[in-house]
Q: What sequence folds into this?
């Protein structure tokens, strides 16, 4: 009897050791996959944020719309909100201090002026969450166009409220189309917003699709097969006589 329990204990220990090694190996592979999924989005966000530097691109031709939309697509949990908004806020602050210095600059004024932009950015992150990264490339690029359109409407509505437009429907339409006299028409900014939103989102999503590991795709397919075989409504197979 004593020999039986000793053999059972040894066998149980070997089983637990093997199970721990397998779990540890899977955990290491999972961590590597997560790190790989995080590195590319964060790197592209930083690069696109640098592209906002004044003078590099035409007015309103910006990667910001793609940054926030794709952050909602690819960055998990709170990181999808914190990283893009902090990167954009830091770049906006630097741009304001270096290129548009004001003697009466204050954090409160900066926040007030930027509030419509960041309200629109938050909406674009939420839109990315709704779309999801598993959509086809063309659908993600279309989502970037929709996000750019929403950004333009929200921010120009904010301009209509703060700038000397007539506070009527006609004044709001003027803010969205022609703008104020002696300034370039706002429809040109809309064109640049729409083009850049679709272009940068297409580039971002295309880069992410190309860098997806084939192992991850195979694992996803295997998981789908396993889930399809586990049908609780299926009748148990009857044994043949």
A:
């Amino acid at each position: 009897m004593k020999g039986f329990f000793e053999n059972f204990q040894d066998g149980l220990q070997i089983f637990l050791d093997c199970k721990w090694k397998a779990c540890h190996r899977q955990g290491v592979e999972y961590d590597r996959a997560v790190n790989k999924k995080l590195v590319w989005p964060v790197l592209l966000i930083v690069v696109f944020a640098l592209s906002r530097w004044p003078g590099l691109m035409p007015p309103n031709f910006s990667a910001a719309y793609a940054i926030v939309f794709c952050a909602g697509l690819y960055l998990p949990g709170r990181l999808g909100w914190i990283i893009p908004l902090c990167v954009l806020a830091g770049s906006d602050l630097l741009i304001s201090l270096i290129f548009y210095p004001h003697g009466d600059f204050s954090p409160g004024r900066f926040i007030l002026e930027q509030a419509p932009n960041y309200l629109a950015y938050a909406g674009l992150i939420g839109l990315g969450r709704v779309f999801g990264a598993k959509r086809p490339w063309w659908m993600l690029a279309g989502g970037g166009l929709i996000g750019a359109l929403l950004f333009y409407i929200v921010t120009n509505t904010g301009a209509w409220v703060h700038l000397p437009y007539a506070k009527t429907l006609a004044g709001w339409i003027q803010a969205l189309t022609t703008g104020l006299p002696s300034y370039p028409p706002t429809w040109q900014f809309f064109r640049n917003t729409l083009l850049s939103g679709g272009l940068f989102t297409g580039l971002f999503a295309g880069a992410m699709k190309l860098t997806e590991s084939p192992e991850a795709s195979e694992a996803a397919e295997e998981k789908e097969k396993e889930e399809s075989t586990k049908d609780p409504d299926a009748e148990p197979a009857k044994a043949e006589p």
Summary: Residues 36-211 form one domain. The chain has eight helices and no strands. Residues 2-50 form the longest helix (49 residues).
